[in-house]
Amino acid sequence: MNRFLILLSLISLLLAIFNNVSMTNVGSRNLSVLNKGEGQVELNGITHWYKIAGVEHSKAPIVVIHGGPGGNIYNFERTIGPKLEAFAKVIYYEQRGSGRSASPEDSNAYSIPILVSDLEILRQRLGLEKIIPLGFSFGGELALEYALAYPNHVEKLIVQAPSLGRGKDIGSFFNERMACVQLYGFLRVAKGDMSLKIRKIINEKTLSEKRLEKVWEMVDTETVDCFLFHNDKVAKMNRKLWRESGLVNTGEMFKAIAKQPRGVPLLNRVHLIRVPTLVIVGLYDRNVGIESCRDVATLIPRARLIVFEHSAHFPDMEETEKYAQTVYSFLQE
């Protein structure tokens, strides 16, 4: 009887070892044979669109996180995307209610925690041990939040002109700061009557956020393009790609997130991020501003700030060659 129990124990031990080895092999296999092309995956009950490229590269993949809130990945995928795919595995995906992904039935089913959770489940479903989040604008904010929530699954971090949060409880300083950057950014690029109208709104005795809302509702296409881009030709290309995509930002995510409590401001937490971090910003960025990006890079212990001297909010489109080389060098370190 004792011999039988000993034998049974040995068999159980061998089975446990075999199962562990098998699971390890499966995890490695998932990472190395990700299928190239587009797909759909359900994340927290919502069907998300994704695309995988550069599958021949073996290192941790870049996961591109788009801005908005409620934007899409279409333009990034067709401009800087192919240059990144030349040296890295790249995973594109569009957030819930954005681009080619499905929208939740409840228009309030958007929050920073659930968007971060969506990304984490995507990582799990694709069998990835670690990723390199690359977020631009609002996507940069999500990338920072993901690195704080799941530090063990982040190899490196890239954020391009990250926003630093919005919400009713985030604190007036952070909301006012971003609003002031944008208000005076619009004033700097506006011409003629539009400049006079913006100046009139700026002089009103209300919160900067309220004045900014009025400016955004009033400004024309030319002013917005000058606000977001330094190069007029690139601004026109951006508009062309928007039309070509047929994708529309409904504004639902923005409205939902703007009215939610946010707790401790992101800028007060980024010092906890320990992975190597690349912070990118255009010299003429009027949407977020150099100072905010400088603060992020200063507070993250292993961060570096790179300023693109011929770009505004989208150096990925305005200086694609330098952008690709900068990311390549960062990944090789």
Properties at a glance:
49% helix; alpha/beta; Rossmann fold; 8-stranded mixed sheet; 8 strands; 333 residues
Your description of this structure?
The chain has an eight-stranded mixed beta sheet with strand order 1-2-4-3-5-6-7-8, sandwiched between helices. The protein folds into three domains: 1-33; 35-165 and 229-332, Alpha/Beta hydrolase fold, catalytic domain (Rossmann fold, 3-Layer(aba) Sandwich); 173-223, no CATH class. It is α/β, with parallel strands linked by helices. Helix 6 packs antiparallel against helix 7. Strand 1 (37-43) and strand 2 (46-53) form a beta hairpin. It has helices at residues 2-32, 74-78, 81-85, 112-125, 138-149, 172-189, 192-202, 208-218, 221-228, 232-245, 252-258, 290-299, 315-318, 320-332, and strands spanning 37-43, 46-53, 62-65, 90-93, 132-136, 157-160, 277-282, 303-308. The chain is built from 14 helices and eight strands. The N and C termini lie far apart (60 Å).
Describe the sheet with the most strands.
8 strands, mixed
Structural class: alpha/beta
Number of domains: 3
Regarding quaternary structure, what we see is single chain
Tell me, what is the CATH class of the largest domain?
Alpha Beta
Which regions contain 5 or more consecutive residues with pLDDT less than 50? 4-33
In percent, how much strand structure appears in the residues?
Answer: 5-15%
CATH topology of the largest domain: Rossmann fold
Assigned CATH architecture of the largest domain: 3-Layer(aba) Sandwich
Radius of gyration: 22 Å
Spell out the helices and strands N to C.
Answer: HEEEHHEHEHEHHHHHHEHEHH
Principal-axes shape call: globular
Give the termini separation.
60 Å
Strand tally is: 8
Number of helices: 14
Provide mean pLDDT, rounded.
89
> How would you name the CATH homologous superfamily of the largest domain?
Alpha/Beta hydrolase fold, catalytic domain
Strand order of the largest sheet: 1-2-4-3-5-6-7-8
How much helix, percentage-wise, in residues? Answer: 40-55%
